[in-house]
Specification:
The chain is α/β, with parallel strands linked by helices. It is built from 7 helices and 6 strands; from the N terminus they run βααβααβαβαβαβ. The chain has a 6-stranded parallel sheet. Helix 5 runs parallel beside helix 6 and helix 6 runs parallel beside helix 7.
Length: 178
């Protein structure tokens, strides 16, 4: 008998994206619901963490988005406290990434899918229009037959308009928006 092999990816639920350097009211509003969703999820839960070094402003991203954020080791880089507590209690995997999408995670999931087919991957988190969309599209490219879903109510973008635009883009690329 085959059992479901569902995955949840919590994208960049870090202090700098919630109420720090790049925080938004929309990001702050989803934290408690994301925590509840993670607690109730029946499957594998993974996290990504945007990770930059002190030379961030000299990088291409830093030149295009000149706001220091998620500098490794700072409080802004840390996951929201209730989510970090879940990570610690369950010994969950966190993928540190220095770009929008977590390539190492996609490779790991692609390999897992070959051995134990993944039933679905659901993404939640921040920011819809940058890292959520980048990860969703990359995962779809790595595993085109695995249903990729994004829970729109548990994501927030740089702005509500960009959040909606990213959701439209993902719909166009056969990612299910729930």
């Amino acid at each position: 008998m085959m059992t479901a092999n569902d995955h949840l990816i919590v994208v960049d639920m870090q202090n700098d994206f919630i109420d720090g350097a790049l925080g938004t009211p929309e990001a702050q509003a989803i934290v408690d619901e994301v925590v509840r969703f993670v607690e109730d999820f029946n499957g594998t839960v993974l996290f990504t963490r945007d990770t930059h070094e002190s030379d961030y402003l000299s990088t291409q991203e830093g030149q295009k988005l000149p706001v220091e954020h998620c500098i490794e080791g700072t409080s802004g880089w840390e996951l929201a406290a209730p989510l970090q507590k879940i990570v610690d209690e369950r010994d969950l995997t966190v993928y540190d990434k220095d770009t929008f999408a977590a390539l190492e995670m996609a490779i790991d999931l692609g390999e897992e899918n070959l051995e134990h087919p993944i039933s679905s991957i659901t993404l939640v988190g921040l920011c819809t229009d940058i890292c959520v969309v980048s990860n969703a599209l990359m995962l779809k490219g790595f595993m085109p037959e695995v249903p990729i879903k994004v829970n729109a109510s548990l994501c927030a973008g740089v702005s509500p308009k960009l959040h909606e635009a990213a959701l439209d883009t993902m719909r166009s690329c056969q990612i299910e928006i729930v």
